[in-house]
Amino acid sequence: MTHSPDVETTVSGDPLTATAIVRDVTSGARSAAEVARQSLEVVAEWEPKVQAFEFLDPALVVAQAQGVDRVAVKGPLAGVTLAVKDVIATKDMPTGHNTARYKGVQTGVDAACVDTLRAAGAIVLGKAVTTEFASTARGGKTRNPHDLTRTPGGSSSGSAAAVACGMAAVGLGTQTGGSTIRPASFNGIFGWKPTWNVISREGLKVYSLTCDTLGLYARDINDFDMLADVFDLDPCDVPQSLEGLRVGFCRTPMWEKAEAPMRAAMDAAALALKSAGAQVIEVELPDIFNGIAEAHGVILAREGRSAFLNEVRNTPDIGVQYRDLVSNARGITPESARAAYALADRCRASFDEIMGGFDVMMTPSSCGEAPEGLESTGDASLNSMWTLLQVPVVSAPGLTGPHGMPLGISFVARRYGDRKAIKVAGLAAPLFEQTGDDLT
């Protein structure tokens, strides 16, 4: 991990990964309260620099942990600390959506995903910074732990940064375009956008019901295996090695958006996979995919009209982006909306057929390294296609660009093949770390 000179390294040995926490708490090596206090020590060191949290109450964190310790039979996530994106409802903390109307508002109920994780013994460390309503590329206060002058990405800015510097074991984000996978790439951690709707979205701010998906972050790929079990994801065949694996090298119709360092990273990743015995095969998607980026934009514009109608009607000074959505400034007609949905359906069916010949696809997790400055969270052009296809995507870290910043490689499986994408990303990441010199 490469950092700017004034940023210290993470906790030695990453003792605060979910896998390590569960092992220690269930064995009695550490109590959940001890984990909570250790997490808060990391927060005290990093939060002044990274500013990942919108809300964090140390007393509440310790109280949750003490509750876990009082339970005789420990849950599968006993003591695991969560950074929860501030568009996800929490019963005991405000859910502010980074907008004035909801500042300090407390729902009194947990989102379904948080409810499930708490039932498994997880502890909500705090509410992590998001862009407004998780729907804009305008940057906020959160900084990239690898270089404090750069963005951590968005809209799941705080969740990714909190996991990257070891404050939280697991981060919860969302993705409607590239809001989980892009920050995973920028922060050098594992990011997982599950198959659409395999994890309930009840209690998460809605933008696009067609695309909105919960996202997850971790520093240890085994943490995703535990989370997949807790969320009762479908079993599927998973490889035990990369030997003989059929991997599609997919540039996508948006390849021109990929910067030179990311193109080099893709080539380096392909060579690493081949060295481990995988077959890496160039994939050219059918022409119908050429319109998928436009279809994504049309669907978001259409669905954003209803998602933000109440906000515009009740918030006179709301941003122009939301007024434009509600007023249909793009002039999206019912005919153009139907055409966009139809194209998305055809692309999903086509991609499912294509994936019959592959184990996974590999594709860029971002356009390049995290941009300098905090004004923008970066470009999601290379992510939105996969979100609209509703397929699982897991970003694997390990490669770096010319400025020493992380570059993630995404592994995409067919719908409901999340566990396969997780496994391949876990097998690939150590190879990426061994590639040596930064890419130029």
From TrEMBL:
GO molecular function, one term: transferase activity
Residue ranges of every copy of the Amidase domain listed in the record: 34-419
EC number, UniProt record: 6.3.5.-
A Pfam family assignment: Amidase
Class of this enzyme: ligase
Region (Disordered): 136-155
Assigned keywords, A-Z: Ligase, Transferase
Name of the protein described by the UniProt record: Glutamyl-tRNA(Gln) amidotransferase subunit A
